[in-house]
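Q: Sequence in, structure out?
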Amino acid sequence: MTDTTADRTARRPRVSRSERSKAVNLVLLLLATIVVLFPFLWMVSLAFTPAQDAFREVKLWPDRPTFENFMTALTVGNLGRAFVNSVIVALAAVASNCVIAVAAGYAFAHLPFRGSTVVFYILLSTAAIPVAVTLIPLFLMVSNVPFAGGNDALGRGGSGLTDTLGGLAIPYLVGTLSIFLVRQFYLGMSRELAEAARIDGASEFRIFWTVYLPISRPIIAVVAIFSFTAVWDDLLWPLVVSSSPRSQTVQLALTGFTQSGNIQYAPLMAAAIIVTLPVLLVFLFNQRHFISGLSEGAVKG
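A: Exactly. Output:
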């Protein structure tokens, strides 16, 4: 007795609607991933392609890979000095934000005072001010720092902190977004921990230092990553305050490969890879804490 078409169809496992939807979503995500990754793959391919062969044909991997472009990026351009400058400014921004923003966020969340809510929302509203509006006041403040760069006690006569690493770092030392995220993170924590510590006679600083700070690693990782990327990716403020190669950052150094009407695409792509690596490493090493901190800080608040 042979099976009929209807019998074979009846025995065939049915695919549910949710499984079909899941398969479609996977295909769409795969296509989106290819579209997003293609520019990065091409960038890597160009970085390892000899400069004279950069645009002869488009390939995902060159026939004769070379490290010459990386050597050109580090020696011909100002990338090496700019890399060190960016690292110094970024570490200063990360350290100051992790100390000041965490302390301020904790104070707004657990040490309320009269008018603290108004002060917090005024502080938060400054995040809505366009960056371009703050450039001139920031530049005047940096150039008029007393006793710096030849200035007198009134901040006149010299260049202040312009064209220095100190002047580069000032706008990044404390971020409003960092304070907001830390406050939301601490609002989601139980106040019973602090009450129990106060009953035992602990001071407010000891409560912060020994009770809350040890369990704040996720939000500290978020603040550190945001602070690092804010410095590393910024071009506008270094363009305003820096006037010589000694204070250039990596973003300014990258523009050096596109000037004089002779764009060096292969060394430029090699330089872009070198500049991108620190951001990727910072994110990969803090990925678990970063995601946890964002979810706890944003959702619980």
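The mean pLDDT is 83.
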